[in-house]
Amino acid sequence: MPTHIALLRAVNVGGTGKLAMTDFRALLAGLGYTGIETYIQSGNAVFNARGTSASVAKAVAAALARHMGAPVDVIVRDHAGLARVIAQNPFAAEAAADGARVHVGFLAGKVKTGAAAELERIVAAYPVRCDSFHLADDALYLHLPDGAADTKFTPRAVERALGVASTGRNWNTVLKLHTMSQR
Fold first, then answer.
1. What element of type H or E holds 3?
2. Distance between CA atoms of 48 and 95, rounded to whole angstroms?
3. If you count Cβ atoms within 10 Å of the first and of the last residue's Cβ in the chain, which end, N or C, has fewer?
4. Once rounded to an integer, what is the mean pLDDT over residues 24-44?
């Protein structure tokens, strides 16, 4: 069975969307998935499942909505897709120096027309910061040399600019999930 990586949006962040990882693992097992491992409390899981990343995301989202009583955005990549995200990182040198300052926004679908220009406006509006971005097909790479705490690339601003749901992980987490998915 293919290995998939599930990335949940807005789970166990800021006191909202509480989901114990033991419950998440049990939910995935209930879907018939195997080899389930979770990583940190922000909704990351690596597991084996039949089907495409899109079909797995749909199944996990439906099960989470039943479990939590509200919708949860679920973005799934397979091992090869995550490896591609890693290989295409335009901020590889910066990530090697400090993985906490490079982030990847995993996108749930195609971005709207003009998304890159809207992201440029975020950068231009705050010239005292040195934040930069690179928009790829299914990922938004961010280099935040001053850290993520005060960036204007907030989840809300990014989603408004892109017109599609996304969930972010720092580079250290991306690499850990990739290592976990090497089965």
1. strand 3-8
2. 28
3. C
4. 95
